[in-house]
Amino acid sequence: MILNASGCLDALTAPDVARSLDAFVTKTITPEPREGNPPIRIAETESGMLNSIGLANPGRDLFLRQVLPRLRTLGVPLWVSVGGFSAHEYAETCAALTDVTIELNLSCPNVDEAPEGAAAIVAACREATGLPLYAKLSPAAWDIAEHARAVEAAGADGLSLVNTLRGLALDGSLRPTLGTGGGGYSGPALKPVALAAVYACARAVELPIVGMGGVRSGLDALELIAAGASAVSLGTILFSDPDGPVRIRAELAAESASRNLGHPLDAHRLAHSSLQMSVSGSGNRV
Amino acid sequence: MRRELRRVAGSETVGPYTLLRLDRGGLDRGDPGQFFMLEAPGRVLPRPMSLCLEAAGELAFLIDPIGPGTQALCGLDRGDALHVLGPLGNGFELEVTRPLLVGGGIGIAPLPYLSKRLGGPPAILGFRSEWHAEAAALVPNAEVCIEPTYVTALLPEGRHDVLACGPEPMLSALRGLAPDAQLAWEAPMACGYGACYGCAVEIHGELRRLCVDGPVLGKAA
Q1: What distance in Å separates residue A47's CA from the closest CA in chain B?
Q2: What is the pLDDT of residues B105-118, one digit of tens each?
Q3: Per the confidence metrics, is the pTM higher than 0.80?
Q4: Angle between the A87-96 and A118-128 helix axes, to the nearest 10 degrees?
Q5: Of A8, B25, B139, B164, which residue is the least packed, with the fewest Cβ within 10 Å?
Q6: Structural domains in chain B plus CATH codes
């Protein structure tokens, strides 16, 4: 299953790209409209990119009234990314949604966070809705597995791993390139970070995991599945390759077949099992 | 919007710039002022480039090698392959009665194709140096000025339909002198098709995406 990472695709501007996904994830919706951060908002770095969009979105009411009905006509399963500045705000938006999967953005590096912790926000949302709830966590936590256990205990149905890392780029005058100073770091450099987070959380909790971070190829996607993801999201790659979902799905099938896997998900959690030795007695056993 | 792997048909230097010619394949040439995202070898993100010229099954882009992406593009050789996405955005409105093209520096990039489609109207081009001004040869019927003279000093009397591309101070000055001017703006963008929200600029007091609402903006935008 291939999704887009939240904030990396506008389905109404590029409906064909959205239809090439197994589910479309919206940009994060907050209770009030947000214009977003002042330019400059993006900067390429050596192995990735920084963004400081600042959760630009039309706000909950306009989204529910005008955007969501149009998204439903695409015929693609919808995930709504929900943000807020208190547990109550998150819960209010969750309560207003129907017929979607909810992804709680608990980790945007470009806005001030809610004072409550991730688990308290998940608990409040759990009370507010019976819809599937995925918690999107930051890879910046020292022990992300601990956060995974906490949101699982609070009632999350799944994890989205990972959001961007906070980064900074300086321009030729040695001043911050982005209008807000720092931003969220994404792209190829994030892949090992995402793999580590998925791997650690897959050991810690039973929840399904949507893996994302630096996926550019079918092999990248397969690695995330092997680490413990059961679905994969595409972020930065969509910016350079809107045909990415189709290409990566085909590559994923080919990479799986070349490993004698009947289905990509046959690789699920493979990284957690030890290699079978083909010749017994070989190796440096003690 | 279509993305294809295209080959470099040739590359020529024009002053400090490079005119990169690609075989067009199945890509639509689009309208003047529209742009394409060119894969920059070795870089994470493609680079937005407005179409400079189209002829004989080729698309040509005028590129200023100011950073790692544009330098990689200028370093491409004949036969090299790169992904090209486009045409994207909104180009110039061509239903004009007295067109006057105005360009500054690398901002002259969309003007050769625009001039061709409008039948070679008068143009005013400004450059930083004589070396940069070698690019003026790409635009027919052009009057050229070099800093410290600016294009605004050469604007003729009377009513014209100004179609312009250049640095922001030039566009802002033109907007003051010709409020109805069609101006092609520039912003850093990751995707070019509305996905990244990176190219936000203020339009009518709101932050809008330049890639889908522009890059050519009309009256007092």
Answers
A1: 7
A2: 999 999 999 999 99
A3: yes
A4: 30
A5: B25
A6: 2-88 (2.40.30.10), 99-217 (3.40.50.80)
